[in-house]
Amino acid sequence: MSLSIPLPTSGPSLPPSPPQNMSTLAAACNDDSGKSRAGSPASVCPNSPPTPPFKEVTCQGDMDHMDVTEDLLTEREAQSQDAPPHDTQTAPPTPAVADAVLSTSTSALPSPPLRKSALLDSANWSILTHSPPVIGIDTKTLVDAIDFHYSTRLPRVDKMFPWLHGLHPSNVNQRTFLHPNRRVNKEFTTEFIPNNSSFPVSQAPGASTPLPSHKDIPSEVRGLIIVKANRRQVAANTPVQYNGFGHAMKGETLREARHSGSIIGTIFLEDFLEGDAEKEDFQDKFKFLDAPEGISLRKFQIQVAKWAVISDIVLYDSAEGLTPRLLRLAEIVSGAQRRFAAENEKLHQVYRTFVFTDSITQLEQEAPHTVTMSHNLSPDEIDEQRLKNWDANLLFHERVEISMMSTATPIACDVWLGNTTDFDAYTASLSAAKQAKQVNKHHGDIDAAAVKAPANWVTIIDCQENARLVPLAVLDQYIREAEACIVDPSRRLSPLQLGFPSSGSIPIQALTPENVYSIINVCKLIYLRSKCTYGGKPAASLVFCNDGYTETSLLALIFLMYSTGCRAPQAWVDLHVQYKRPFFCFPIDVTVASALQTALHKYSPALNEKLSSGAEYTGMPPNLMFLSDDEDNGSVRHEDSWFNHFDGSVPSRILPHLYLGSLDHASNHGLIQKLGIKRILSVGEPVPWAMAEDADEDEEIDLEEEARKVAHDPDLVKLVRQTQERREARKHLSRVLYVSNIQDDGIDEITDSLAQCLDFLDEGYRLGEMTLVHCRVGVSRSATVCIAEVMKRLGVGLPRAYLFVRVRRLNVIIQPNLRLMYELVKWEERHRDQGEGWLREVDWHILCREIANMNRVYIPE
C-alpha cells in the first residue's frame, strides 16, 4: 500500500495574525513588527528548540524502512534499558555489545547510532537513598534525558492499545468490546465519482484469544515523568486556569504558585499517587483509574496515571531545591514503583525515581528550552509566557483562540457581532479617551478617532440567557431620539447599552404580541441608530456575548431578516457565506425565526418605502405560527426545502477550503449546495444521496412528466420532487471519497487512510473547491482528519492544531478517541526529520491531561 502525503517542506502558510482589538494578554506576545506570535507555529515553551518541518514520505519503501527502523531502535533501547537496578552498580550494556546483537538479524539495513537516555547511565547517578532507592541527577543529565525523550518516538500504537483505554478486571463489557476478535478485514477506501457506487463487505473475525487485561502492560516502554513537588501554596499573584469563556474552572484547586518556575512536562504527585494531597499524606501506591464499568474510549483523565507506571520519574522543587521533604516524597514514589513491580509479573522493565538536585535557575541558564515557566515572574510576565507555552494551560489558550476566532466582524448596516474581549477592549479604550478628555479639558463628545476600536460602537447589545426583552415604552423613547438625530445631524446621540435574550432562550410560547413587537423594535432601533453619527463618525452597533458565536446568533439572524428583507433560510446562508461569521443556533431558533418572518417583513425598511414614527405596535394577532407572507401564502419555497429538516447548525468552517460536520449535514444536500461545498469526504459513514446510483437517472425518466402524472397524489408529487432535488444536488458535486474501514470503536486505525484523505483535501484546495469532512457526529473520525490537515496546511504542531479545530467546531466538542489521538501523535513524529529537533511539542500524557481539563468544564466525569 503506497502512502503519498504532499506535505510542505519549506515556508508553511501561517494562520492570520490576531485582530487589533485582542485582549492585552494576546497583545503582550506581539513582537516589534506587530505580528502576533500566537498566530504563528507555536513552540512548546518560550525557548524550546525548533521542531523540524514535516517530512514527505512518498513510497511504501520509505514507510517500511521507517517502521523497521523504529522497531530496531525500540529493541536496542530496550536492550540498553534492561539494566539491573542501580543498587547493583552494574553499568548498562555497551554500544558494541548491542550492535553485535542487532547485526545478526538486520545486516541488510544501515545501523543507526545507539541512543539511550542519560538516566540509564549509572555514571550520571548520585545515590541519595538506598531503600527505597532514590537517585540524584544534575542539570546536564536532566537536559540530556529530556532531549532524548522528546527526540525518540513513542511506542507503536498496537503496543499501547487497548491497554491505554483502561481494562479494569471487573469491566467485562469494556474488555469484550476491545477484544482483538472484534477486528474485521475491511476494504480500504471506495472513491465515488457521483453516480458510481460500490460498498465493501466485511469478513468474519478470526480465532478467539483471551480478553485483554490491565495486567497486559506494554513491554519495552520507558516513559519520562517530571513531577513538581513544591509545597502547596497560593500566592496573591498566582493566575488561575480559565475555561473557554474566561471564567475560573469550578472545583479547580490552585495547587501551587506558578511563579516558582516549571520544567517542561510537569505533573503533580496527586495526579498518579494515592493519598491526601492537601495534607501531603501520600501512599506508596499508584492510582488505578481504569473505569470499573461502562465502555469508554476517551479516558484522557487516566493517562497520566497509566503512563506513570511505565516511566522513570524525576522530582524537583523549584522553590526550595533538594530538601529532606523532597527526598521523603521521592522515597514514596520509589516505593510505589517497587510495589507495582511486585504486583505485576509482566512488568519486565526496571523504572527508577530521580531527584533533580540543581536549581531551576541554573537549568534555565544552561537549557532554557526545558523550562516552560521562569522563576519569580511578575503577573504580566506569567501571562506572556503562558501565551508562548503549549506544554500546559490549554484552557487558557482555548480562551485566547476563541477570542481570536470570534472577534468582532460587521454584518448589515454597520452592525458588528463580537465577544466579551471586544467589549472589554472597547470600554477600556473608551475610558482612556474620557480621561484624556478630562485632562485636556475638552468639551462635547469624545473624539471617535481617539477610541481604539474597529468601529464607532455607540450602541451595545449584550445577549445573555437571563436578559429580558426591552419594554416597548423604553424602545419608543430611544427610537424617537434616533429619528430626531437623523433629521437633525447636529443633535447629540446618546450612547446606549441594552440586553437581549440569548439564542435558544426564547420559546415559541413567549411570542406574544407585546414580545414580538419588542423584538421588531429592537431591530428598528439598531437600524435607525446606524443612520446616525457620533463624535464625527458614523454610529455603529456591537452585539456581543461571552463566546461571540452562540448567544448573539438569534438576534443577528432576525436583524438580517428585518434590515434586508430576506427570508429565514437565506439569513442563515448569508450570515455564514456572505458575512463569514461563525455562529451556532439551536433548533428552537429555527422555529422562532420562521414564526417571526412575517412580522419582521411587515415592518422591514427593505420592503417598505416609509417607516412609521416611534415604536411599531399595531395590534398583531397573538398566534404568529399561522401568519404568512402574502407573496407565497406561507409555503416554503422550493429552493428553501432544505430548511424543512434543518436543526439550526451548519457545518463548521475550519479553513477556507475545509468544513467539518456530521452525517446530518452531509445528508442535507440543499444545505450543502447553498454553502457552495463541492466535495464530500465521508469517514466511515456513507452518504447515499451522494454516492448511490439513481435508477430513475439510468432510465432517463423525465421527472417533470412524472410529477404531472401523479399530480392527484401530494405524497407522490413530493417524492418525485425530492428525487429531482437529489439529482440536481449530485450534479453540483465534484467528487466524493468514502473511507469505509474506520469505525469509532477504539480499535480501527486511521493512519493508513490519512494519506488518501489529505491528498483528496489537497486536490480540493488546489482546485479552489470546498470539502466537507464528516463521520456520524463530526467529533472523532472526521475531526482527526481535519486536525491532520491543519497540522499540514498551517505547519503547526498537534496541540495547536487540535485546539484550532476544537474552537472552530463551536458548541460541539471534538472528541477523537484515545487511539485516534495517539495515532496523530505518531503521525506527527513520522513526518518530522529525526535528529534536527524534537519529534513532539507536547508529551502524550500531558496532552491528555490538558484535553481532560478542557473537557471537565463541559462534560462531567
TrEMBL record:
User: Any idea where the Tyrosine-protein phosphatase domain is?
Assistant: 650-833
Tree of life domain = Eukaryota
Q: Is the keyword Hydrolase in the record?
A: yes
| Xref: SMART domains | DSPc
Write out the biased-composition intervals (Low complexity): 1-12
GO cellular-component terms in the record?
Answer: nucleus
Keywords (alphabetical) are:
Hydrolase, Protein phosphatase
Give start and end of each Tyrosine specific protein phosphatases domain: 752-820
The family database entries (InterPro entries) matched by this protein are listed as: Dual-sp_phosphatase_cat-dom, Dual_spec_PTase, PPS1_DSP, Prot-tyrosine_phosphatase-like, Tyr_Pase_AS, Tyr_Pase_dom, TYR_PHOSPHATASE_DUAL_dom
Signal peptide extent: none
Task: Respond yes or no to whether keyword GTP-binding is given for this record.
Answer: no
User: Which Gene Ontology BP annotations are present?
Assistant: nuclear DNA replication
- Span list, region Disordered: 1-63, 76-95
One molecular function GO term is: protein tyrosine/serine/threonine phosphatase activity
PANTHER family attached to this UniProt entry: DUAL SPECIFICITY PROTEIN PHOSPHATASE PPS1 (PTHR47550:SF1)
Name assigned to this protein: YALI0B04290p
